[in-house]
Design a protein that fits this description.
By secondary structure, the chain is of the alpha/beta class. The protein has a single domain, classed as Nucleoside phosphorylase domain (Rossmann fold, 3-Layer(aba) Sandwich), CATH 3.40.50.1580. It has a five-stranded mixed β-barrel with strand order 8-12-11-9-13, surrounded by four helices. A three-stranded mixed beta sheet has the order 1-2-7, with no helix packed on it. Helix 1 packs parallel to helix 7 and helix 2 runs parallel beside helix 5. The radius of gyration is 19 Å and the shape is globular. The N terminus is likely disordered.
Length: about 280
Amino acid sequence: MPCGTAGRPLLFTSGTLTLESMLLIVAALAEELQVALDLCPNRTKITCAGRKVWTGERNGNQIWLLKSGTGPRRSAASVEQVLAKLSPSLILGIGYGGSLDPGLDIGDLVLIRRASLLGSPQSPRVPLADLVPTGSWELSEPPDIMAQAKAAGLTLARGDILTSPWIMGDPVQKLALHRRFQAALVDMETAAVAGAAASRGVRYVCVRAVSDRADDTFLAPFSYDPSASTAGRALRALGVGNWIHLYREWRKRAAVARRNLRRFLVLYLDELACS
């Protein structure tokens, strides 16, 4: 039996929009968010706190959806602005992540336990070994999520994630980060969203699908290099040949990640959200 909030009106309290059991789904990229949008018929695009958000429905439950944009600052600002107007009971983060763990493969799903924001208190241009977590947040875990994922035929692992302001695409860098922090994944948004959610006292669940393995090299030309300027990194990337091949490889990996994210979302929206 689907759970539902059909017919429950939106309430305005002190200028804040509230709804019992309201879910806000957040993704950085349009194609990541599209996975959720496709599962919410009769959706509408509106403006909330100056941000474009969608409102849709599944099984009678109202769902809000936000494309936060990429990078810690942009994603945190997007979520903070929307949370100033909306009061969801839960934020669900979805999207891709780069694997730091050599045991993870393309499309593997990881339920994030802890998200740490990677940075430097001194300067952004320091050696990788000097980067430290500048904040860490524990994320929520829905009851019985692991058992229900297994029953649905989904492989869902638990793991920590590092959020970086920079791309970490070099296998040497990824291995070093894995050894130092034992994190499973790296991305550019999760910890920033976690911080924004925590500041408002909103529970945050996040599931990421692996879009590049720990030994993949196609993002290496864009990877963090404290010795190079932004222009220098751009020139290095332009010097890499066979762009069409690299792009096709990325699209194939992203397609696998996106397909498994959809399978998880169907499970979550139709089963777990009702528990």
